[in-house]
Amino acid sequence: EPEVTQTPSHQVTQMGQEVILRCVPISNHLYFYWYRQILGQKVEFLVSFYNNEISEKSEIFDDQFSVERPDGSNFTLKIRSTKLEDSAMYFCASSGLREGRTDTQYFGPGTRLTVL
Amino acid sequence: QKEVEQDPGPLSVPEGAIVSLNCTYSNSAFQYFMWYRQYSRKGPELLMYTYSSGNKEDGRFTAQVDKSSKYISLFIRDSQPSDSATYLCAMSERAGGTSYGKLTFGQGTILTVHP
What we know:
The complex is a heterodimer.
Chain A: E1 5-7, E2 10-13, E3 19-24, E4 31-37, E5 43-50, E6 53-57, E7 65-68, E8 75-79, E9 88-95, E10 106-107, E11 111-115
Parallel strand pairs in A: 2-11
Antiparallel strand pairs in A: 1-3, 3-8, 4-5, 4-9, 5-6, 7-8, 9-10, 9-11
Chain B: E1 4-6, E2 11-14, E3 19-25, E4 30-38, E5 45-51, E6 54-58, E7 61-66, E8 71-76, E9 85-93, E10 104-105, E11 109-114
Parallel strand pairs in B: 2-11
Antiparallel strand pairs in B: 1-3, 3-8, 4-5, 4-9, 6-7, 7-8, 9-10, 9-11
């Protein structure tokens, strides 16, 4: 069964460093997402990406964050200058075998980001 | 008022019990309703998906949506220890226009089914 994969599973970084989190969405899906979950808190939407551009983003997704689909398979989240409060699980998700079908989103296993 | 509210529990039941999990919401634009299961330190796994009001059954799981009351439920029959996990409700608006499927999650309910 197709699945979303994410690497690395755990990333430790120093405050102020740049990190790139990588995801391989399900093949042929059209919509891609990043969510995060701070320990003990809700899963929160960060950004959605469709047709090679950001389609929606939350207040959390400020200028320190960026997303890219550098090729036909990878989808990345970059945090330019990490802060302590960026420590969280980051989940990638994908959906939509055809346009408009954004409802059933499939999540990857997550990357645990620890900022020291 | 929070957009989606879910009692975090924890909820502890004996094996074989019927479990009822619930969420309320305030955004009347929500059209799609999902239940995800999340094991510790893993990604959410899609369990059930419903569109608009009504019931949907899949094996031991039944999802209910009552849009007039802005209330959704997940029932688990004959619960098993392997059902022990955190259950997340999630909702989204209809795709199109300004919505590209952003999911809004509840807090999650921690369920333990003991043998």
